[in-house]
Amino acid sequence: MSVRGFPSKETVLRLKEQYPPGTRVELICMDDPYSKLKPGDQGTVSFVDDIGTIHINWDSGSSLGAAYGVDMIRKL
């Protein structure tokens, strides 16, 4: 972790390499009590932002991002 709990630039670059746009992912867990997403839901990565959030277009229609260090996804 870097300043104020954000990932380092190196970590963000690694995430961008690991999850390029178009990568299919599956949700393992998400720490968001208001989300209707559930483990097993699948989606397609649209981009990774500069704080390491992986923005995903979920097959269910949601476009909620997976927050680095909080939510868990896996590549399919």
TrEMBL record:
It comes from the Bacteria. Pfam families: DUF4314. Residues 9-76 form the DUF4314 domain. This is DUF4314 domain-containing protein. It comes from Tepidimicrobium xylanilyticum.
